[in-house]
Write the structure tokens for this entry.
Amino acid sequence: MLTKDKKIDFVTLGKNTRRDVADALVAAGRGHIGASYSLVEILLVLYHGILKVDPKNPHWEDRDRMILSKGHGCLTLYSILSDFGFFPKAEMKRFCMPDGLLGGHPEHKVPGVEASTGALGHGPSIGVGMAMAAKLNKQKHGVFVVVGDGECDEGSVWEAAMHASKHKLDNFTILVDYNKQQSYSDVSEVLPLEPFTDKWRAFGFETHEADMDHPEILLDILRKPRTGAPRAVICHTIKGKGITFIERNLKWHHKVKLTPEEIENIYNELEI
Amino acid sequence: MRKRCLDTVYQLAKANKDVVFVGSDLGVGVLDNFKKEMPDRFFMDGVSEQHLIGACAGLAMSGKIVYFNTIATFLTRRAFEQNMIDLGLTKAKVRILGSGGGLVYAPLGPTHLAFEDVAIMRTIPNMTIVAPADAEEMARAMVASEHYDGPIYVRIAKGGDPVVTKPELGFEYGRAVVYREPGDVLFVTTGVMLNRALDAVKLLEAEGVSAGILHCHTIKPFDTDSVVKQAKKARAVITLEEHTIIGGLGSAVAEALAEAGLERMPAFKRIGVPDVFPERYGSQNSQFEDFGLNAPQIAASTRRLLKELSPA
């Protein structure tokens, strides 16, 4: 099982994760880099500080469940799962290859991946079902679902929210990667979500907001005792975070071609 | 048939604590005994089929055997992506119990007619599709579902249908049942069309035309071997389904025969709902009449087909 470090070096881990993501992106020549970089700190907090999972026994019955519902951010998940030994790091450089383990969206066949996602709005429902099953089985583990902000356009997200609330699933946590941009443009232009936290509260959730420039805030929130309701954490993030010319740049939502100069500049910014 | 289906779910749940029931917003009183005796495993959780299919998948991925009942169109048509990915891709042990398969809801209009449900569900890898002919066959299908792998779509008929299946012929998912050996004609049926076929056979027999019946309660996985074996014995093969003729039983039989490399291909006809939205209301039976699905019409279509084969 993973041991939880008291002090987590998010700066170093963040750069290492982003370098892994870049390696995969360069090897495959494609990938959702903006969406992957925005959620790095969310997943680092979860895997280094919160989740009880066992790389040697990925199907351990009492493990915490973590579903990356915004499946297009999978490169970050793959990097962290390989850090913990769920599968060899070498798989990162075989991203999207015909015989590679890792594709452009996560699949449950990959050790450590709980659900096949990428068609948006599925993860919250599956997570609610898993949380209901845990209650029935009197198990103590938690269920964590990470959704994108654009993903919250999907009605099924809100159906799942009502359902979690009805059953008072205090073992269920939804984390929104709120980078305020979706594929075409700003969330506020495509389909505004505000007042976003109020919406979750109105749906019966215990709500929190976390500035992901300071990941310790999210860590503290997730370590607080539960209050008998499902929990939503709105994580304020930056799309493409960590590389100056990618941050908030919608051309980097999904990249299919990288110039040698762009590749060099990415790696330069990830020097430690 | 629906009552027998749900009663069997109740029996299964009494004996197996992993069995869970989910409904959307069913009629008052449905499975009250289940709710009363096993309240923690009874969920009546709202008109949100796409979400509930996902939640059922989550329950199944945690070891539960999930029975989810509501109206067939909303289970299949509305929640198709969840069926494909959350159930098919993950092989989740979820049993989707679709009420009103076919033309059952004729008075309610086309929004409620599940006449393409089999076609769309057939395209989902790992999905099993069963359409029992009567309440007894439904009960056998439900009992067999408990330890069956992967998701199952159970098409529930109107109810009160005559009991025509025979318990001694057994029930196994994926195995078609021979009700009569073919003569001039082979009818291939699914769902309640078995009872129409049995009546049509009697009408034809009185005129000296011999007809057999192969009943495919399971449309997927499809019993290609039995279809080909029986079809070889007949001059004409006619498929009978309460469903569009596109993509359902008729298509499955056509695919099987076309690929079988038969030396002598029998004549072939699909009887079902043509490629239209039913424009009239009435009843299931009156729509059967509209589309030539009642026994006298089946017999008439058969006579016409045979006449074309022997223009004497």
Observations:
- The interface with chain A takes residues 20, 40-41, 43, 45-46, 48, 50-64, 81-82, 85-86, 89-90 of chain B (CB under 8 Å).
- The longest strand of chain B covers residues 236-244.
- The mean pLDDT of chain B is 97.
